[in-house]
Write a structure and sequence with these properties.
Layout: E1 2-7, E2 10-13, E3 18-26, E4 33-39, E5 46-51, E6 58-60, E7 68-73, E8 78-83, E9 92-99, E10 112-113, E11 117-122
Parallel strand pairs: 2-11
Antiparallel strand pairs: 1-3, 3-8, 4-5, 4-9, 5-6, 7-8, 9-10, 9-11
Length: 123
């Protein structure tokens, strides 16, 4: 069992930045890949990006590529999502999740989820 807790969401103006954190507890953090998803009102949950177990590999959705960066600190059991140049369309609840699959990009391949943190970008 893995417990995940996201933090760092809030209200920011377009063009601003936020850094989300996801703290994990339970099983060995470095043994699984981590992903970030988001869900806007009335829309399906959307893949944002993922990071490998050792942080040596990352992958991003086209919609955030070049603006968002995922990193992790295995010593702190924490994964981060640095979001720069935010746009109103980035407004959503952001979730971190655990996967035992190396290159998972769909929600169905993630086993544990946090409760989410709201990010609102004003124009």
């Amino acid at each position: 069992q893995v417990q995940l807790v996201e933090s760092g969401g809030g209200l920011v103006q377009a063009g601003g930045s936020l850094r989300l954190s996801c703290a994990a507890s339970g099983r060995t953090f470095s043994s699984y890949a981590m992903g970030w998803f988001r869900q806007a009102p009335g829309k399906e949950r959307e893949f944002v990006g993922r990071i490998s177990r050792s942080a040596g590999n990352t992958y991003y959705a086209d919609s955030v590529k070049g603006r968002f960066t995922i990193s992790r600190d295995n010593a702190k059991n924490t994964v981060y999502l640095q979001m720069n140049s935010l746009k109103p369309e980035d407004t959503a609840v952001y979730y971190c999740a655990v996967s035992y699959i190396l290159a998972a990009m769909t929600a169905a391949h993630y086993n544990y989820w946090g409760q989410g943190t709201q990010v609102t970008v004003s124009s």
